[in-house]
Design a protein that fits this description.
This protein has seven helices and eleven strands. The protein is of the alpha/beta class. The strands form two sheets. The protein has a nine-stranded mixed beta sheet with strand order 4-3-5-2-1-6-10-11-9, sandwiched between helices.
Amino acid sequence: MSLRWRRALLKISGEVLGGKEGPLDKGAFSFYAGEIGRAREAGAELSVVVGGGNVARGAALAFLPPTAGHTLGMLGTLLNGVALREFLLAQGIPALLMSALPVEGVAEPVDPWRAREALAKGTVVVFAGGTGDPFVTTDTAAVIRALSVGAEVVLKASKVPGLFDDDPQRNPKARVIPKLSHGEYLARGLRVMDGAAVAIAGENSLPIVIFQVDREGAVLEALSGKRGSLIGGDG
């Protein structure tokens, strides 16, 4: 399968990393590590931004001041990052963990130049800690990290096949939108991807693919342009 994009950033939300075994689901981490490895074997240079919603979602912690709640959310992404790194290594996939909230001996500080070198050598770079700032989503972190390492596309892993013209849960006749521009996405008020993230991507002509990730081979198919909805891009 030929790749449409070679260097890509995969955004994995925390909600797909939890499961029957709890917030950190062994089966989920093993599956996604395998999917990343399959794409790497096909020639992709992959970096990954992990969300933290399976551990702590800052916006939902209303009993804490917002800054503290968002900080807990960012720390949740670090837990996911550590786990994903270990599952990658266990499958023989070289992996490097960087965090906007670095912890000595656990995760390195984010360094775009070191990350680029690692990607060129076939290492999967996992980014955790969001941007390191409260009030900023991991979607936005994904776009920023993608731009910093020279990724050609952001792959937004989702539970749905792509973008719909209406809410498919309320309207069974809702149809998937195969492609639209960054500006069209924002004008329609769609919410699968954070608006700030899409705006930054649009300013930098960075395409985004929204795709359903919980299928074997889905990441590789998204990299090949054969799965999901495309925001931006040249055709």
